[in-house]
Every structure is written in structure tokens, then in C-alpha cells.
Amino acid sequence: MSVYSYFPGCSLTSTAIEYDTSFRLVAEAFNIGLEELQDWNCCGASPAPHHWGGNLGVFLPARNLHIAGASHTAMVAPCAGCYTRHKYAQYELKHNQELRAQLEETLDEPGRFDTRVLNIVELFNEEIDPSELAARSAGSLTGLRLGAYYGCVLTRPAHVLNFDDPRDPVSMELLLKAAGAELPFFPFKSDCCGSYMGLTNPDIVLGASRRILEAAGECGMDALVTACPLCHQNLDLRQKQINKRYGTALRMPVLYFSQALGLALGFSAAQLGIDAHAVGVGNIVDKMRSATTGTEAEAPAGPAAKEAHS
Amino acid sequence: MRIGVFVCQCGTNIAGTVATEKVAEAALAMRDVLHAQSIQYSCSEPGQRAIIEAVQRQGLTRVVLAACSPRMHETTFRRTVAQAGLNPFMFDMVNIREQCSWIHTGMDEATLKATDLVRKGVARVRAQQPLFGSTMPATRNVLVIGGGVAGIQAALDIADTGIPVTLVERESTIGGNMARLDKTFPTLDCSSCILTPRMVEAKAHDKITLMVNTEVEQVRGYMGNFEIDIRKKATCVIEDKCTGCMICQEKCPSQAPDEFNVGMGQGKAISIPFPQAVPLVARLRQEHCRQFIKGKCGVCQKVCPAGAIDYEQQDEVITQKFGAVVVATGYDTFDWQAAYPEYGGGHYPDVITSLQYERLLSASGPTGGQVRRPSDGQEPRNIVFISCVGSRDEAIGRPLCCSVGCMHIAKQAILTKEHIPDSQSYVFYIDIRAGGKGYEEFTRRAQREFGAIYLRGRVGKIYPRAGRLIVQGTDTLAGDQVEVEADLVVLATGLSGAAGADALARKLNISYDQYGFLTEGHPKLRPVETNTGGIYLAGACQAPRDIPDSVAQASAAAAKVAGLLARGEIETSPVVAQVDSMKCVACFKCRDVCPYSAVDMEKLRDGREVAKVIPSLCQGCGVCTVTCPPGVMSLNGFTDNQLISEVVEVLR
Question: Which of A163, A213, B402, B446 is least surrounded by CB atoms within 10 angstroms?
Fold first, then answer.
């Protein structure tokens, strides 16, 4: 069993606690060991690198990397922001020897910054065999049209992250398809949701997220799937605000990637914390239930069910 | 032995870094050097005359010239030396420009290095023997590969000089991409009206043999005497019997992709691509035919009034001799779908390429010249053109300009307005490149008279909304984000060398670049030649180019071919390998490595079998000389003796 150092970050311990719950459930189901990083600190998020300036945006994640490096060769950060900050710090410390020397002087020992940092999509793609997922889920997502939404930072900047194709990422699709879901082309899969502008200029977030949600509706999606707590917040929590601001009637459920996989594995919406979302997911669960009932009535095998309902 | 050394100043190109006078002075001290001088421009008329005069006055027998790269002017100076009365090979050219003055900055070091290089040249020319080339007969027969407008032009021009031409085309008709175009810029001539007569002429010309459904299989030989295998693919249609009535196509039950209409229409397994095809003969594609897939059908055979269908037909390989080859394989449009997910990556039926749009505009196209969008057959109102899709885009590794996009967008915007008067065209562009005669005026007309709205900026995304496509881009002149609601989006896709051009290039032993374009001999001075003698380029196979440029280059290639074959014989280079047959151990490793099959076996009087070089095939590459285990293979002008004495001098 592979064991990863787990960096939850602030979101997964507060506003996105259901992301943490569902992540742990799916990881456990596939025998992926997670050990929460001891004494972790904030990754720096947006303010440290972009507003406070200096090297705080590198030093904060570097401390986490240094702790993780003592015990683990790989660390998973499910929050796209945390993931990017740690990768970025690693990149800086690899290419800026002066900065590295400065930091090592403060630490008074050689830095252990080279622990591999993974995001959740990367981790699941490496640890979960699609055919095993297909077998264990018995194609339970069949009939669902899901929009894989990566947002802007999970793949960018590409030369720092080296994860998937920044213009057309497909990693989430690979696993969701294995679980039977249909993943139609989604032109907004790597667009920005407005990110932290929600704090300073909410109109930007409302506008950007509206476009994404409307496009999801246009493409006939049953739900969007994301791997970023901030995206989730903007798309799910602010959906009501968007409807109010623009007079729209959007009702697009937004799932975390781990929740979508959890549903596929048969965990309940309550177990996965989906019932805590602002936009209800009744339609998805109903669709899955009707598919399952149909399966039982017609044929017991997964693939047969796929044929009958696709 | 009386050696003369000449050191070229090349203006300041060499003299700016190398003290040429000092090099000449140092040369005078070298063994057997009787004369040395610095010359301002040795390639100029007075420069060449100075060399001739010095040779004649001083009775020089060998010449060393320190100047630019031999690639540039070696031939020129061999001629000069010959004019002075010497064997042209009693000459060595030392490169003190590209390999010395241009790459160094310090005068002292550069002068020292130039002197060393001259010493090397002197050593080499001292060991030089006179060499004599010979002539060989050349085959007066030319192969033109590719029957687009460039190939047709080259074939006609060559044939008009009286030299026989075989024009091969892998499709079932000649005409190439130009036959797909509706109108041409900037004159709006009907493309087929100007092309079709040329196609017919090519077929009717008594010096042109036209072969369609044909590809070059294998190439042997060399300039003047190529031996080429041509594969004529089975089409299940007897060419002489088919009358082109198209009844087979009408009745054929097997659907197939419509390649001529670039996927805009629905094709049949047996078909004639378009009504003006030359030759007007049907072709059956077995991979789509029910007779071949299911083993029964036979409809075309039953309905053909001429009895031209033969399901048993086999490929045929024809071998012929040619003196020269013109490659005119043209271009393919860039396969954009995988590279541009932001334009829908092929998921939206109403995002098409400009070549596809050309077929929708054409009266002989699948919609009869009515512009109908693919998704629902509706006539579009708002049409958005996007330039540089797969061109000028370093993000996808294609920085090259397609050179025709700006112009055909302007043309299509004009034609759109003519077809649909209440339509509105939008053009997203980076720059408007309209360098040709009348081109700039044409793009202005598209905007002023035909109301096309030009927006300077790239498109970032296309997405669907309520049955239309939203094209989201920037207007960098206004500094604004723009969104245009489009009914149809046309992408001006970049150009690449035609599919398979790289494989053909390998057969012909010519080079090509990463985009599949074939490489010319010199970008300025040898634009239609290749680096392999006797093989010439015409049209867009060499680089993206429009019709007038393709035609001009084709005529240039034809002139080169006529020049080569005019005298009926070709001079051969004496720089070839030689075997010392007494010392040959008959391992034949030389024969194994020779890329030109120029090594044969020879039986000596005593019965021993040894290696023998065929001078007319040998290209002087030298691979055999370094392979030969006993070292008895040597290259004229590059003997071990010469190379070793050069090295000795440099290390001295």
C-alpha cells in the first residue's frame, strides 16, 4: 500500500470539509494510505505571493515541503491552490539557488524540498486502475452527463506543474468514463471561475462563473465535477447570487472529483457530504437510482446495463 | 611544384577580422609557395583576372584560395583555374570566412588561425593529382510527380521543348487543390475556368504521358539516368473503356468519404471526383466497396454500359528511365482538431476549414453553390473567419506563415456577401499580409465594398449557445474583449507538405523540414533545385505559396530541366572513390555501406573477385573509404595522404 503525506490546507478543514471526507473515503476504498502532515501551515494561497510580495509565497509552502520530506517521498494536496503553491515553491527553489541558500541558512540544515507533490486527479489516476474502477462501480454512473471542470490553476502554468494538457486536460474524464459516466465536450473545462476576486470584486466572479454554468447547461450536463474548493465555492455557493444578479434560473450541481468517484463506488450522498452543497444533487442520485433499478430488473451485469441505458 | 596562394579580403567580411596581408606574407614562407597575395574581392572580375595573371606570369602549377565556403564559390574558382590553363582540380579552397573571420573577434587569433588553415590547404594541394571528369549520356525523359497546377505547368513547359514527360498523380484526376477552389484572389477568376483547359491540354499533349492513381515506388540511379518504379494502383475500372458517364456512381449503394469535397458531401465507393475531372474515369475504392467488404454487390458492373468494371484488376508496377524529376506534390491543410481544443476540437459541425468552405461556395460543390451550414443546412447570417489556425502559433510549434490565409479570407468574405447579401462577415486576424500584386487593394475592398468587419486579435474560445456559436476573442486595437454570435465559423488552416511527401523525399534522397516541405538547394540562388542532382521542385511542396508563385516556380523548374537535358549528355564529377584492387581483401563492406549502390564486384585475371567502383554512380560521399578495413579504398581529391598531411600541418 502506498502511503502519502496529506496536506489538507485550510479549505479542506473548513468550507470544503466534504472534500476531505469524500477524499478519505475513496482513498481508503482503493487502499491509498494518507498521513496528515504534522504541524502544517498555510500554503500562502493568493495573498502571500500576489499581495504581500517578497518571498513569503515560497517560504510558507517550503516549510511544509521540508517537513513532508523528512518522512514521505510524495505529498498530496487536493486543493488546486495548495497544489499549485507547493509546486511553484519547489520550482522556484530548484531554479533560484540564491533563494534556496537563503532559506537553508534560516533552516540551518539542507532543505528537503523535493518531495513529489500531487493533486487529487493525478493521485487517483496513478493509483486507481480504470478497469478496477469499472468493475467495482459496475458502471453506476451510466446515464450521467458530467462536465469535467479543471479551472485555471490545476494545469497552469504548465512548465511548473507538468500535469496534463493545459488547453485540453483529460485526466478526470479517464476515470469518470470508466465508472460509466458520459463526458461530453465541455469548452469551459479550463476557464477561470473568477477565483479569489469574490472578495474584492464579486461581479467578476459572478460573470465568469455564470458563463461556465450556462455553458454546462447548454451542453446538457447533469453536473460539473471539480477538484478545487474555490471553484466549488464560486460555482455552487454563489449560484444563487448569480441567479439573483442576472435573473437566471441556473440549477447546476457541482461535485468534487472525489464525490463523483464516491458515488460511483456506492457511497451515499450523505456519506460524501454532497447534501451540504448549496445546489441539491437530487437529479443525479435519482438518475443513478433509476439506472440501478433498471439494471436489476433487466440484467444483473454492469456492461449490459450500460447498453440498455446509454 | 609552384604553388600560388591568394587571400581574399571579401571587403571587410574577412579583412575586418583577419589581417590578409599578413596571412599572404606568412604563406610565402610555406614549402613550394612561390607567390602569395591578398585580393579585395577574389570573385569579382578583376579578382579572378589577378589569379589568372599570377598563374600565367609566374608559371604556377597549383592554387590555394583562402576565401569563403567552397559551397559558395568552389565551382567558380575551378573554372578560373581552368581558364588559367591548369587542371581545375589542382586547386584548394580554404574557408577563412564562415569558419574564421565571421566567428572570431580578435584580429590576432583570427589571423593566426587563417594562417594555419592556409598551411593546411597548401599541404593538401601539394598532394593533389590532376583529375578528369567525363560525360555520360542523359535520358531525355522527365518524370513530374504531382498533377496540381504546378505539376501541370512544369509538364507542359517541359513537353513544349520537345522533351517527353510522364506526369504521375496519386488521385484519380489531375487538378490538385486548385480544382477545389471556387474563385481565385485577387481577380476573382473562376478557378476551374482557368485550370480545366490546362488539365485538358496536359492530357492531350503528344509529349505528355498522363498516369493517374499512380505513386512512385522506388528510385534508383542518378542525375541523367534515374530508373524509377511507378505503381499504378488497381481501381477496378478499365481506363480505356470508361466513358465517364457516372451511372456507376449514381447507382453505387456503398457510401464513402467525399475527399474531393473535404468531407462536406457524401461520396460513393465508385466515383468521379468532379465533373471536369481529367481523365474523366471512375475509380473504385475497395476499402469502402460492398463487393469487397461483403463479397457481393456487383451493381456497378451490372449498370456500366461500357463494360469497364473489372473487380480482378491488380496493381501494376512500371519501370522507366528518366533523366530528371520534378517534384510538385503540393500541400495539405493543417489537421487542426487536436491542436485547437478551444475551437471545439472538431466537436462543432459548423466550425469548418476554409478549404471546406470553398466547396460550399463552389457551384460544382455538394450544395450547388448555396452556402448551407453543415449542422442543419440553414443559410448562415453571421460568418466568422479566423486566420492563422496552425500558422504563426508558437504555442503549438508552428511559427510559419501560411502565406495565403489573409488573401483567401478576404476572397471568401467577398464571395460570402455575393452569395448571401444580408450576411455579415467578421475576420479575426493577427496582421493582414497582402504582399502580392493587387493583394492589398483586394483586402481593402473586402472591408470597404463588402463590409467585412476586421478585428485584430486571436480567438480564445468558441462555445455553443442557443443553436449558435459564440466566438470569443480580443480586439487588440480597441483593447477590448469581443464576442460574436456566429452561424458558421471558417478557420484559415495552415499549410504543410502533402501527406507522404516525406516518404517520397526519402526515396528521392532529398531533404525536407519538420512541416513536410521539401528543401531547396539554396534559399536564394537555387530555389527550384534540390541538393540531389537532377531533382527539382515546383510549387507548394517546397513552401506555402499561392497560384501565381507556384506557376512561376514550375516554369523555372522546367527551364532547369530543359537546360540539363538540352545537350543530351551530362558531365560527371571525378571526385569518386577508387579501389586498389591488388590490396582489396574482398570483404565487400564497401558495397554494404554504399548509399548509391555504386560498388560492384569485379573478377580479376587471376580469378580473384574484388570490389570495383562504378564512377558514374559514385557521389563521392566517402563512406566506403572509412569503412574499408585494409584502407585501400580512397576518394579522389580526399586521399588519406592529403587528409593526413593537412592534419600534420594543423598540429605542427
Answer: A163
